[in-house]
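Morning. Coffee machine broken again, so started the prediction first thing and wrote up yesterday's gels while waiting. Chain of 300 residues, entered below exactly as on the submission form.
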Amino acid sequence: MSITQPADQNGCPDNVLLTKRSPHGQNVLPQNTCNDICQTACSLSTKCSIEENINPNLFVLPRKTMNESIILTSTWPTSNPIMTKNMSLQQQQFKTTSIFTATTVILFFMVIGIVLGNLLVLATTWLDNRLHQPNKYFVACLAVADLLVGGFSVPIRLYMQFYPLELYPIELCRFWIWMNIFGEAASIVTLTVISVDRYFKISEPFKYRVRMDTTVSAIVIVIIWLISAVSATFGLFSFGGSDGVTSVVAHGCLNDNKIYYTIVSVVFFFAPSVIIIFMYAFIFYIAHQRQKMNRRGELG
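Came back before lunch.
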């Protein structure tokens, strides 16, 4: 039995013919089923015929030709493979755009925060005479290192974020990688020196005042910058079977020297981190012991 659904009743055009067969007889399809089927049938510009087999959830919808068919299962409306693929591409594009926007915003505010914050530290150290002390120069050195990262390394990374498919000049890649390692190495080494300086200042205050002066502080700062420059320069060479610094389309600037980065990670990250943790642990222990002695009146 064939039942034609008028357009004004069930949402199906007049030229769409719907048929439902079941073991118990032929019945008119429900309103929502008719609407869903008609949308698919009308998109194919042909008459649709729905046949229910042994499985009541399995339907066969003939296409434009007699020998082609679309099998619709489980749930209406029908899932179109092309539409599903397009939706997946749109979702992936939206996700990529969201990540790009978030990364760009973070990098932009990082540049502003790093530059303004460290310029403020340098200006305060320069203008306030009370900060013209040997240990305070280490703080200024740390501000300069962070300023190099925020003023050169992060802006170049932001530029690469806007032009990801560009083939960058090899000189730009070398400068970026060198400046990145140079600034970060100087920063982490300075943090380590500051922790060691504070430990000696608390553990041996009298000897510290005699030994630590402006000359010693300047020598330590020069050593910090030399170590950082040498370590960054080694990163520009290719050894250990690597290609060194390269510029690759859609990947930006690369350095595949795994041996170099392993050594740099150990020397300028893991080892300084361990030293900093131990130094501040000792500082906390000494301060706690002196507080206990002060409560007992042993410090006078």
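Confidence is low (pLDDT under 50) at residues 1-34, 40-77. Going to sketch it on the whiteboard this afternoon.
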